[in-house]
Design brief:
The chain has helices at residues 41-48, 70-76, 92-102, 108-121, 137-149, 167-180, 193-199, 217-221, 235-239, 278-289; strands spanning 4-13, 16-26, 29-35, 56-61, 64-65, 77-80, 155-159, 185-190, 202-207, 210-214, 228-233, 246-252, 257-262, 272-273. By secondary structure, the chain is an alpha/beta fold. The strands form three sheets. A six-stranded mixed sheet has the order 6-7-8-3-9-10, sandwiched between helices. The protein has a four-stranded antiparallel sheet with strand order 2-1-4-5, with helices on one face. It binds adenosine-5'-triphosphate and magnesium ion (MG).
């Protein structure tokens, strides 16, 4: 399948530059876009979903050009916005049939067939006659994916889909995304590193509208190479660590505390250099941007 190519996209809102020359190349599979609040994730997702127009730059997939063919893009696209508000007083099935009609799926039989197919895919078929207002957060998010799957899109965009889900729902949701990524492009935006760790082959990080793409998770963790230390300290020493010491995580044991620390130089005589995680690579990358 063709690659989705995002080339030098700029977008400003008044004086805020939400995207600065954002460029990405995305192949079939799940692509993670990792960034803090306000980094520019939703702005980029909206531009890919043709809800917003960029100030400059181009997006292409094969011979489809976003600046020229927005109607074609909408035919191949499924989009789960960050704030997916479904109608509360209708059943899941009614909600999806309505959206199917809005998406231009013709004939009530075809709408019903597609509705049943996507409900099955997100494991909500048994809840199809329940009112959406009574759904849990996880069920609502799955309904959001279901509507994005109507028309069997080649390209799916999901914006922070796991925020606010409990651990079991989050795992179920990640498994669903993995299924979807088998034969299409899925772009997943998140600020949760574990979402990326669990699902994405390739990824990009974004901060202040600037994105950097990595070909593997290891490439991101390697940014923190030589800067992560484990240090076993007594409780007293641990509690007296200065504010300038960047403790990423710590495990409290009976006799001592084992802390993981990010530092450019060895933070103490007993500290040992340690293999960095993606989270640490991401933290160091963010620190280097400031
Ligand atoms: N419609 C808008 N009008 C004005 N400013 C906007 C608008 N949309 C986004 N912004 C600004 O653009 C920047 C990027 O916002 P965006 O919503 O893309 O970030 P995000 O990475 O999705 O953040 P979050 O994790 O909080 O969802 C922010 O500074 C935001 O305040
Ligand atoms: Mg957002």
């Amino acid at each position: 399948m063709d690659k989705l190519i995002i080339q030098s996209v700029d977008k400003s809102f008044g004086r805020i530059r939400a995207l600065r020359q954002a460029s990405l190349e995305i192949s079939t599979g799940i692509f993670g876009l990792l960034g803090e609040n306000g980094a520019g994730k939703t702005t980029l997702m909206r531009i890919i979903a043709t809800v917003l127009k960029p100030d400059a730059g181009e997006i292409t997939l094969g011979d489809i050009k976003w600046s020229r063919d927005s109607h074609k893009v909408r035919q191949i696209l499924g989009y789960l916005p960050q704030e997916f508000g479904a109608f509360k007083n209708v059943t899941a099935e009614e909600c999806l049939k309505y959206i199917a009609q809005l998406k231009g799926i013709r004939g009530s039989e075809e709408c019903l067939l597609q509705t049943e197919r996507v409900l099955k895919e997100v494991n909500l078929l048994e809840a199809k006659d329940r009112k959406v207002g009574g759904f849990s957060g996880g069920m609502r998010r799955r309904l959001g994916i279901a509507q994005a799957l109507l028309n069997d899109p080649e390209l799916i965009i999901v914006d922070e889909p796991t925020a606010g889900l409990d651990p079991a729902e989050r795992i179920r949701f990640r498994n669903l995304l993995r299924q979807l990524g088998k034969n299409r492009i899925v772009i997943l935006s998140t600020h949760i590193v574990e979402d990326i760790e669990a699902t994405c082959q390739s990824l990009a990080v974004i901060k202040n509208g600037t994105s950097v793409q990595f070909s593997s998770q290891q490439e991101l963790s390697a940014i923190a190479e030589g800067k992560v230390w484990t240090w076993k300290l007594s409780n007293a020493d641990y509690n007296s660590l200065g504010k300038d010491v960047h403790v990423v995580s710590s495990k409290i044991h009976k006799e001592y505390v084992e802390a993981r620390i990010i530092a450019g130089v060895k933070p103490g005589p007993e500290a040992e250099e340690t293999e960095p995680t993606i989270e640490e690579g991401y933290l160091v990358w963010n620190m280097e941007q400031e």
